[in-house]
């Protein structure tokens, strides 16, 4: 099993926590975000800065938002929503949505196209409404209904 750099992340996390800037992030914006090093299949940040792009899904106040991590690698369409930004394809990892402190937001990159953002909203709402049990609970795997 690959060892993750948890000790390095802990030092970076201390610096992130001590940031004092007020970040004015808004829905649909794409930001370089400090995701850190996470456990198991949780999506990590990259490189020594532990960051990757993230989409502001919902801002609650100046200190807290829901963010969706972004990947440039083609992924399972059941759990990822594709979108194009600056003529390149990306995927929003909707099952990895998380609550973050806006201290994790570093630099604004741009905006998600509105139709793709609406698709993300719809797909997350569908996932939240499902009554299906997971395969681990004896249910069937979740597949979008045609």
How do the strands and helices of this protein lay out in sequence?
Elements: H1 6-17, E1 29-34, E2 51-61, E3 64-71, E4 80-85, E5 88-93, E6 98-101, E7 105-111, H2 114-129
Antiparallel strand pairs: 1-2, 1-7, 2-3, 3-5, 3-6, 4-5
Describe, in plain words, how this protein is organized in 3D.
This protein is an alpha+beta fold. The chain has two helices and seven strands; from the N terminus they run αβββββββα. The protein has one domain: SH3 type barrels. 19% of the residues lie in helices and 33% in strands. Strands 1, 2, 3, 4, 5, 6 and 7 form a seven-stranded antiparallel sheet that branches. The radius of gyration is 16 Å and the shape is globular.
What are its keywords?
146 residues; alpha+beta; SH3 type barrels; 19% helix
Summarize the structure.
The protein is of the alpha+beta class. It has two helices and seven strands; from the N terminus they run αβββββββα. It is 19% helix and 33% strand.
Share in helix = 10-25%
The average pLDDT score comes to 83
CATH architecture: Roll
How does the helix and strand content classify structurally?
alpha+beta
CATH class: Mainly Beta
Strand content: 25-35%
The SSE order reads HEEEEEEEH
**How many separate structural domains?**
1
Principal-axis shape equals: globular
State the distance separating the first and last CA atoms: 38 Å
Q: Catalogue the unreliable spans.
A: none
Q: Quote the CATH topology.
A: SH3 type barrels
Biggest sheet layout: 7 strands, antiparallel
Gyration radius over CA: 16 Å
Strand count = 7
DSSP helical segment count: 2
